[in-house]
Amino acid sequence: MALAILPMFLFGQNDSIELSFESVEIDTSTVNVFEQAPNSKFKLDYYHTDGYSTYNRYWYEILIIDSLLILNFHSPANDDWNYINYQKQLDIVVEIKQAIETLGIQQKVKGIPLPPGTGYGADRLYIESPEMQITGGTVYITIGAETSVEQFNRRIALEKEISTTLGGDFQKLFNKLEELFTDLPMLIESKNREY
Predict the structure, then answer these.
(1) Whole-angstrom distance, CA of residue 78 vs CA of residue 29
(2) In whole angstroms, how far apart are CA 29 and each of 32, 110, 111?
(3) Other CB atoms closer than 10 Å to residue 79's CB: what's the count?
(4) What is the C-alpha separation between 64 and 16, in angstroms, rounded?
(5) 159 near 17, Cβ under 8 Å?
(6) Is the Cβ–Cβ distance between 18 and 8 less than 8 Å?
(7) What is the rounded distance in angstroms from the CA atom of residue 164 to the CA atom of residue 4?
């Protein structure tokens, strides 16, 4: 299955951004990311990756399994922060469920968008509970010829919006989940720093 994408969007007078891909393939195969927690009542896995190739890619993951919060970070370019795993008990499920409902998060298209090349970023969201089953995400290209950071960020936001298989304000949910990982901004800033 492919999603059609318009090749260019206009943002205003003399300000246009060309998107990096024209269609996105969707992976509809079944993935069981929660096979180690079959009896849990609420399971959420938010995974983000970004990189210019397959070998320099960093990623982080935020998992909520009932009252267990698990935070993972991996950056191959940084020896000190190469891999971090943090776990703690946190009563956050009610708040996250309310955010999911308020933001209208739902499955818009079955599956996860696949990247069209090796220089990409992606968000993946898996949720399992008695009320919902969600397997979705976004994809965007990390390589571009934009003339400003603002233009680059607008293109990425558009590519996420167009490629998403999720309905609702998924970016606000991603931001809320990232707030649970308080060291994440520092880890992202220093991900390529050699010590």
Answers:
(1) 33
(2) 10, 9, 7
(3) 10
(4) 39
(5) no
(6) yes
(7) 12
Position of tokens 């399994």? Answer: 65
Provide the whole-model pTM.
0.87
Alpha-carbon Rg for the chain in angstroms: 17
Q: Which pLDDT score is estimated for 75?
A: 87
Confidence of residue 13 (pLDDT cuts 50, 70, 90): very low
Three-state secondary structure call for residue 136 = strand
Task: Give the tens place of pLDDT for each residue, 26-46.
Answer: 999 877 888 888 889 999 999
Q: With the CA atoms of 155, 26, 93 and 86 taken in that order, what torsion angle do they form, in degrees rounded to the nearest 10? A: -80
Given a contact cutoff of 8 angstroms between Cβ atoms, the answer to whether 139 and 121 are in contact is yes
Instruction: Please tell me the predicted confidence (pLDDT) of residue 111.
Output: 95
Provide the residue count of the chain: 195
- Mean pLDDT of the 92-99 span: 96
Whether residue 9 has pLDDT greater than 80: no
Q: Write down the residue that tokens 């079955």 correspond to.
A: 110
